[in-house]
Specification:
Order of helices and strands: HH
Number of helices: 2
Oligomer: single chain
Largest sheet: none
Length: about 120
């Protein structure tokens, strides 16, 4: 077997592959140097920035709405607590009044029982 032709074919193959990589790299650099491509890239970046800005504004709006809901719920909770305290105080006052009436009635009954004896 002749090794010389095989080595030459392998070297030629390596040369072709490396030249293709260099050629693609040069095309990429040339495309970056093209003003139209640079302008398109700037436009794409500007669009991305605009979309990001819209997303941020939308999130801020949602946060504000959530904060308003939290404040509303806190007010409702305070109102409910106030109503509950009022009902509890009224119930306690009514119970105390009922207990006082019962004590007075029992006191009168005891006095009447003692008078009967």
């Amino acid at each position: 077997m002749n090794t010389r032709p095989v080595v030459l074919v392998l070297l030629l193959l390596v040369l072709v592959i490396t030249s293709q990589f260099e050629w693609k790299q040069q095309i990429g650099e040339a495309a970056e140097a093209d003003p139209a491509t640079a302008r398109r890239r700037q436009q794409l970046l500007a669009r991305e920035d605009a979309v990001k800005e819209k997303i941020i504004l939308s999130q801020e709006k949602n946060i504000q709405q959530l904060n308003q809901l939290i404040e509303s719920l806190q007010r409702q909770l305070l109102h409910c607590r106030g109503s509950n305290n009022t009902v509890h105080a009224a119930t306690a006052a009514a119970a105390a009044a009922a207990a006082t009436e019962v004590s007075e009635v029992e006191g009168h009954e005891i006095i009447e029982d003692e008078n009967r004896r």
